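re: that chain from earlier
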Amino acid sequence: MKAKKGTKLVMMGNEAIARGALEAGVWVAVGYPGTPSSEVIMTLQEYKADMYAEWAINEKVALEIAFGASIGGARSLVTMKGPGLNIASDPLLSAAYSGVNGGMIILVADDPGPITTQTEQDSRWYGPLAKLPMISPSNPQEAKDFTIIGITMSEEFELPVILRTTTRVNHAVGDVIAGEIIEPKKFKSFSRDPERFVRAGMSWNLARHKWLNNRLRDLEKSTKYPLNSIEGEGKKCIVTEGVAYQYVKEALSSEKNAFKIIKLGLLYPFPIPFLSESLKGCEEIYVVEELDPFIETLLRANTDALNINAKIFGKLNGGLPLEGELSPEIIGSFLSIKRKDVVWRAEEIQVPQRPPPLCPGCPHRNSYLAILAGISKAGFNRKEVPIFGDIGCYALSVYPPLNAIWTEHSMGASISMAVGLKIAGFEKPVIATIGDSTFFHTGIPPLIEAVNKKVDMLIVILDNSVVAMTGHQATPAWIETETGRRTKEVKIEDVVRGIGADEVRIVDPYRIDEMTKTVAELLKKKGVNIIIARAPCAIYEMRKRGRPGYYIVLEDLCTGCLACIRATGCPALYTTEEGKVKIMEDDCYGCGLCAKYCPEEAIVSGEKVAKKD
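^ sequence. v structure.
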């Protein structure tokens, strides 16, 4: 990140965006962790630049912080994954009416596949919805360059600019030529201007809407920014953007002259003047894009303005799939390309199913085992007590052997949905499980609702003291952030007690029998009862402090019953060709959970055995 101008670097797309922020003079960088966008803020934190680079409690707050900085003239960047923009959509649309004074980039990273996200959301629709400029890079070099262009464009047209990426751009690694890192553009001034910044005035809002539309028209006509491009010639034309462009290039590697490629870097406002000129002479137009037919829809809606009569092929007439990622093979078939050097695959390669497991030693495994055991201990059938899940690594408890959670919907929804089920008339107990970061993110308002409406329920807050699934980022419970910024710790127990929860217990999930007893007790109590299952993330602890211990299997005692594997599903356990169980010592955290379920007492502490020897 400290390389001088002109240096060729090998960078991930997210690292390139971070470098672009430095070269653009960004002063405030803020976001909420979410794959595939997390590494942008993490890279800036590791670089320890002269800037504010921190995590916010959620995406809405993050966007409002960045927007607040930008109306004061500072340059800002806010990052999130696709569903995070849904959380931030309220301030997003209002920010368009107010406009900015300092350049502001809103990075939203979508996840076709999906690979790590609950939906295949296509955030490109937020461009026309919010009436904000949206740009789309196709590789790490463009990711850096478009970040700089976006900041400059934002300041010129006084609008936040959305930088929309997808997983294959965020996580792709490629060559990036470094530019010059400049001094960050900090606060300039801020004056009272209610007609611009107060949305309570309806006549003001009408005036600002007209201002916004005029700004977009000016941007649409601008040829200043090198975002769109044309390659090749021909009467068969491909309109594409983002990583789909890379797939097109690969598919056409042996037929470079057969098609004209029109690559869009500016997605909104839809570049009518550029397309009108670029599509002249095209007899067939192939629109290649992932997820929704966004470009295709706008293209078809503007055929008169574009003065085109060519037949358009894309997703709307079934040429390309509406779901999943594209590939050179899919695009080659779509374009009816026959290559001698490649045999297009008619079907996906079938691979064995491998459900993602909780990590070795993960305290959440213990928590869910205790919850399931507690349900039985309280006298209920496990099939009659719903366990609502939430967004986080603990959602992996849905898979065998735990088969624990019944739902996983959206951030903070476990508590809200459990409240809704009880209000609907469900008579048996309900359990909501939510992680510590997710609780801070959007779990507090539904808890207030539950307490205020006196809903009987058990809430288990799985507190591993970090945002684990997205790479171990800070939570409001930290006393110091990744950049060394000293903070004031916010304790979950103080928050829930302040809200008015009826009973609050803090338990150690590694003491599984104690937690089981607590679950059984509170499950039968009236009111909003909360268990804070507190133990650090095992992976994070191992990286910081080393492994606390390890366990081994005494081969002569192991009968191969597999009770340990069937009960825990711990990935550190495996079976030999002889049917015996062994433990991968490097992966073992030393929690001893597997030993609890071994009927032969064949699993013991490796350290104790070593001492005896």
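The chain has four domains: 8-221, 229-334, 363-543, 549-612.
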